[in-house]
Every structure is written in structure tokens, then in C-alpha cells.
Amino acid sequence: MADEIDRYFKACISGKIDALIKCRIKKLEEDTGGADENYGGGRIQNVNVAKNGIENRIIRKSDDWNVAQWKKDLWNVNQFMLTLTPHEQQLLQMRYRRKPYSWDKVAKELYKSKRQCYNDLKRIKQEFSEGAYWDPSFLWKTL
């Protein structure tokens, strides 16, 4: 489970989730969907169906499950970060950025030993997994 939490933090803090959200929204905007081949005949079956492409695109973006899940995961990590001390926040930022700092550099920046930094991170991950923030969804197995 620690590996899953590592991937979760890495994806949220490094900006990978932001990039995934932008790509997914761009794909949804470009996807026009299937064309209606019922030219001029028959009656409308579902009155609640959006009448034009703009409405369809807005509905697809707002109803997309992946975007909603990723936004929820970002919100969970941000709310968890608010509960941490500034040193703990710095520790997470340094270890889970795109190019993470080594333990030596993290310890030097935080004025702690490597072992203390490692133990702090282990405790933070334990708090996260026991709290209401951790949602082990299937998406994180693919990231």
C-alpha cells in the first residue's frame, strides 16, 4: 500500500494529474461524437437530449468520470497538505516533485538527519492512509 500512496502523492504533487485533466478536457472538446444519421424523419425519442454540439461538449466535460475522480484526488491531497506542518509540507514537495531531491538534499534543506526525514515521511503516509483522504481507486494502479 505504501507504493500506491507514493504513486498517489507523486501524481498529485508533481503535476501529472493536472496534465491528465488538461489532456482529457482537450480530448473531450475535440471529440464530436457520432453523427445523427436520422435526417428529417421520425420523432424525437428523448426530449432531454441536448440540441447542439456546444451543449453536448459542456455536458461531456462536466459529466466525465475520469476528470471528476482526478479533481477529487487533487482536492484530497491539497486538504491533507493543509493539516501538515510547514516542514512536513516541504518534505512532501521535495520528495514528490517531478525531479525529486535525494534524501541527503532533503535532510540538508530541513536541518534534520536522513533517518528522521525518512521516518517523518513514513509517518505522513501512515496518517494519510488512515485518514479520510485516501481513496484507493483503480486509476492509481495505472499511473
What can be said about this structure in brief?
With 143 residues, the chain is an all-alpha fold. The chain has helices at 2-14, 16-30, 53-63, 65-82, 86-95, 103-110, 114-130. The mean pLDDT is 81.
End-to-end separation:
14 Å
Strand/helix succession: HHHHHHH
Mean of residue pLDDT values: 81
What is the strand content? under 5%
Oligomeric assembly: single chain
Low-confidence stretches: none
Helix-strand category: mainly alpha
- Main pleated-sheet profile: none
Helix percent band = 55-70%
Shape: elongated
State the helix count: 7
Report the radius of gyration as a whole number of Å. Answer: 21 Å
Number of strands: 0
